Amino acid sequence: MMGTKTPRRQRLLQAALLASTVLVTLAPPALRAQEAAAMTRYQFAIAPQPLGSALTAFAQTTGMRLVYPASLVAGMTSPGLTGSYDRAQALGRFLSGTGLIYRIDGDTVTLSRAADPVAAEGDVIQLDQITVSTASGIATTIQDAPASITVIDSETLKAEATRDVKDVLGQVPGLTLTHSTGGKRVSFRGLPPDRTLVLIDGKRVNAGNAFNRLYQEQGIFDDIPVDAIDRIEVVRGPMSTLYGSDAEGGVINIITKKPEDVWTGAVSLDLGLADHSTTGDNKQLSGYITGAVAKNLQFSAWSKLSQQDAPEAFHYTNSEGTAKTVEGDQGARIHSYGGRLTWTPQDNVEWGAEVSGSDQEYLEPDGDHDSRNVRKYRLALTNDWDLGAGKLASSLAYETASNKTWDDDDGWEDPISYDTTVFESRYTAATMLFGRTLDYTLGGMAMYEKLNDPITTSGVTLDGSATTAALYSEGRYEVSDRLTLTGGLRLDHHDAFGSHLSPRLYGNYDLGGGLMLKAGYSQAFVAPDLRSLDPNYALSSRGNGCKPYSGPCIIYGNADLKPETSDNYEIGLNFQGERSSWELTAFYNDVKNVIGAQKTGEVDATTGYDIFERVNLDRGQTAGLEGGYTRDIRDDLRWTNSFTYIAMSKYKYDFLDTEFPVATTPKWNITSGLTWDVNADLSLMGSLTYVGKQADYITADELSDEEARAVASGQNKDPYFLVNIAASYEFSNGVKLRVGIDNLFDQQPSSTVTYREDGRLYKIGLTKSF
User: Fold this and answer.
1) Measured between alpha carbons, how far is 317 from 543 in angstroms, rounded to an integer?
2) Are 360 and 249 in contact (CB under 8 A)?
3) pTM for the complete prediction?
4) Would you report the helix, strand and coil content of the chain in percent, each value rounded to 5?
5) Cβ neighbours of residue 727 under 8 Å, at least 6 residues apart?
6) I need a surface site. Which of 299, 304, 513, 642 has the fewest CB within 10 A?
7) Crossing angle, helix 87-95 and helix 51-62, to 10 degrees?
């Protein structure tokens, strides 16, 4: 039963008022952010090259945006810049002798000729900082990048009242928050969520393999506090050329803030209280700090304590009219932390040492014993070396994770453990070829992984390991003033299934007036994991793993599995103007050798369950459109929109006639939002999200008995809307107050649908910056 929890709402208000009083009373005066930024010195290693490319590298290094007419720097070159400079010194050297001037406004730099300080609308490009490791391995703007990219910068994250990264990601074109067992998960272009690769500072997050069911993992997006995030770069579409396996749908790179010379930081407290017991309350306390501890030695650290209460079960009615009960998502209590030391012994060399970890306790409703304990640790050494005309970036990382479950009779079971050691080195540089710029990347990677999993249905502990090595290269060539071509190739070798090649080709054509035509082809692959490759490993499933048949079943591994591959195509337009920007992209994904499971016809003698085996099945296809439109209606009013349309989502089992949807994603997903900066301190925000019917919706009633009357859970039957509102206010002493209501009208999908949205949730938060 769902009931109103007014007394708890009152406790939330009391707690928030108390926290506000403590923070406002005890917090020291805040340093001015602009003054701190102006004093910050950056290490530059920019080779001689066209001025436009050099300015792009400046934006990437400093985290600033540059706005200027597209024709302003045409034909100009830069002598390069090496050494330690603040941003004004660097700009002065870049623009010396060019006849250009600049104006700094916060994090934005506007360039113009001395006699023509105003640029014409429609001929303006805005340089958004893109890390050299996400979109192409080479510093570039969003328009010039050889991929469909969205950047969520720190200002956007600060403006949002939410402290949940997934909610912000839901506004990205082509990306959908799907609902299945385990709660919300991120899906690209109609592909399953496990085809999304998550990076932190350009490096893989490998701990998920400590779970024998990947949907069980909590905290992938929630470990790092928002105050420690510099930006989030989202690449829609495959990126196997740079990152190898799993980057089939897209890549999400969470980039943390670099250590700085000036001591700064923030402390945040956030609370959320739900109207109904089927949505869990949450609370979190986080902090971030950075500064110089000695000459050429900077330090940064963050920590976060959070708790998401376990919601109660909800009820629904299936297509046959039978009442069903679905357990709510598990709650979680998470303590995560991280730290980094950066040492610059000389201008062209930087060393880094990083440590991070988390301790996660999975909570059950009604005060039952914790169901799971997960611990993750990561150590890394990094080195950036300006070598010749380019940069050599290398890293050595060790990551370990353990996952133990609670048994009411036997207590804590033996843990699953998963360890990885990864070494990667990448060289990026620019050169001139036939009078035109060639940017290129050369890299190599070696990874050793080891898994020990005693939680098997067969009772046989899996104790396996694998070694993967890769070589890759990518080049971006300026064919003409308007046309740029990017090509890439990666060779991966796995000691279980051998070698695999991943090619990529992409073109950008400048149509003028701020409009860019973009099109490309890429091949992606997904390697079988250690469990899937072990024929002695057995995992039981109550139903979802047995599709398209009803469960339960037992699934065995298969040593003969091949990698899943996909051919992916996209074409689109991207416009960047002074007050507006928009993009529209069509995509098509053709997936082959899909890693799945198939019934063998045998039955387990002990349980009576059907036996399945991991196999490469037939194929799946998705196609659709994605787009976005942003308009600064006034200087203080911004309108932001995004949509994803899945025109086709078809997956066919080679032993059945019916086509099933590839993943549980809606046909239409549309988000529209307004942000109004009432004044320098107060901002108001609101958003509306339309969630459409499942793409290629199918029900068990449409299938014959011979076709196995079972379909995946999580399909939406009827469209519905979600409305969020929020406000933020920044006090003069550096304290920022955030309030909001998610799902204002408490909307839910049809009562016959097997998932529920979070119900109405009241949120309040405070951040003290110093």
Assistant:
1) 18
2) no
3) 0.80
4) 10, 55, 35
5) 161, 682, 683, 684, 685, 738, 739, 740
6) 513
7) 180
